[in-house]
């Protein structure tokens, strides 16, 4: 039968993790922590299971968890979502993304994405019958030609918007660059969309990983944008439990109603004991409030040691990813395309990374690869030792 996704292979994250395992490489590719989550969180899930919370939960998620999510968003971003009509628990961020897209995009609709873009966006749009319209993130360079900051391509975005634009996907903090949106960016987006019926999917799964005292600017903090946005976040990222696959989507009631029509036949519900455990854990705000410091220490350690290598570092204001330019390394492999370079780095040097070209549809080579620093210091130190040998 004709493939629904003829141009799609296996996601790069799975490919690189498999290659890393095969070659016993240190896996700084796929984004996940190599350290344990809090035992108290596991204890809470355990208690929930022993208390027989093991049957289907409500389709939209258990009340305690939705109430906790509403409180968190209210505390951090001063927007009140009604937990009953505006918040839905999902099986991770990626399911939230697909379900949002399936619920509002159809044949003939256009969806704007900003590349480099997370690899699930485009196939999800195509499955819905929509068309992905990619614009590229711009970079500002310093006098040495190094990337100093990222700039949202406002002109290209303005040109891309037309009456067929059903949805625009934004992602802050941004995977893979770590770029974060500022308040002025949200203002500009709101004015760009003012007289349109374009909706926004805001992927904020790295919301608690913003550094140097900066603030995360959520669409929830912007009333005009909140009124047309699906906000997505992930407990896997926040609580170091990527394998649990629990996240949420918050959106105005009219959007949530459409979202839930699809969600109920997509996953129906999300596992019950994890929801109870997370609901109880979420009430202790310190866990997410401490996350920026926790990850900044890792980022700073990783960056300080990377300075001793020939890799040129790109700025990392957010996320747990560090992008590096390898083209100035004094080795023949510095001329390889990104995917080949990552393969070589994994199999011959023993450190797995993700080629940034995987975040583009059209062949794009910028000589940049992504490392994940959500690792124990000893893991980072061993990887750095190998990188410093280049
Ligand atoms: N978001 C994670 C990353 O960019 C991986 C998620 C996945 O593997 N699907 O590494």
TrEMBL record:
Pfam families, per database record: Aminotran_1_2 (PF00155)
GO cellular component, one term: cytoplasm
Keywords, sorted A to Z: Aminotransferase, Pyridoxal phosphate, Transferase
GO MF entries: kynurenine-oxoglutarate transaminase activity; pyridoxal phosphate binding
Record's keyword annotation contains Transferase: yes
Cofactor(s) named in the record: pyridoxal 5'-phosphate
EC number per UniProt: 2.6.1.-
Domain Aminotransferase class I/classII large: residue ranges: 25-387
Broad class of enzyme this protein falls into: transferase
Family, per entry: Belongs to the class-I pyridoxal-phosphate-dependent aminotransferase family.
The protein's name: 2-keto-4-methylthiobutyrate aminotransferase apoenzyme
Organism, scientific name: Polynucleobacter asymbioticus (strain DSM 18221 / CIP 109841 / QLW-P1DMWA-1)
Lineage of the organism: Bacteria, Pseudomonadati, Pseudomonadota, Betaproteobacteria, Burkholderiales
């Amino acid at each position: 039968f004709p493939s629904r996704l003829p141009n799609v292979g296996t996601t790069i994250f799975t490919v690189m993790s498999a290659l890393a395992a095969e070659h016993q490489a240190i896996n700084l590719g796929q984004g996940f922590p190599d350290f344990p989550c809090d035992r108290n969180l596991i204890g809470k899930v355990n208690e929930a299971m022993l208390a027989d919370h093991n049957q289907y939960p409500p389709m939209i998620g258990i009340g305690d968890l939705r109430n906790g999510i509403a409180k968190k968003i209210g505390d951090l971003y001063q927007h009140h979502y009604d937990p009953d009509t505006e918040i839905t628990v999902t099986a991770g961020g990626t399911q939230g993304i697909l379900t949002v897209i399936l619920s509002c995009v159809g044949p003939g609709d256009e969806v704007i994405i900003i590349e480099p873009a997370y690899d699930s966006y485009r196939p999800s749009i195509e499955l819905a019958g929509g068309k992905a319209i990619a614009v590229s993130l711009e970079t500002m360079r310093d006098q040495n030609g190094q990337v100093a900051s990222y700039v949202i391509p406002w002109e290209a975005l303005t040109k891309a918007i037309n009456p067929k634009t059903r949805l625009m996907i934004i992602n802050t903090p941004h995977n893979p660059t770590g770029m974060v949106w500022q308040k002025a960016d949200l203002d500009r987006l709101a004015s760009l969309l003012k007289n349109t019926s374009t909706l926004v999917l805001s992927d904020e799964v790295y919301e608690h990983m913003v550094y140097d005292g900066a603030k995360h600017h959520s669409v929830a903090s912007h009333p005009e944008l909140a009124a047309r946005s699906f906000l997505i976040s992930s407990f896997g990222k926040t609580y170091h439990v990527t394998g649990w696959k629990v996240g949420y989507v918050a959106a105005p009631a009219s959007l949530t109603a459409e979202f839930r029509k699809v969600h109920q036949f997509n996953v129906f519900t999300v596992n019950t004991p994890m929801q109870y455990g997370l609901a109880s854990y979420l009430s202790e705000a310190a866990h997410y409030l401490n996350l920026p410091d926790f990850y900044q220490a890792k980022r700073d350690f990783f960056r300080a040691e990377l300075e001793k290598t020939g890799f040129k570092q790109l700025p990392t204001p957010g996320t747990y990813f560090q992008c590096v330019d390898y083209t100035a390394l004094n080795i023949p492999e510095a001329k390889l395309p990104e995917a080949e370079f990552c393969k070589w780095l994994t199999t011959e040097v023993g450190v797995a990374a993700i080629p940034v070209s995987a975040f583009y549809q059209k062949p794009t080579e910028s000589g940049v690869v992504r490392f994940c620093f959500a690792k124990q210091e000893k893991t980072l130190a061993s990887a750095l030792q190998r990188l410093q040998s280049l």
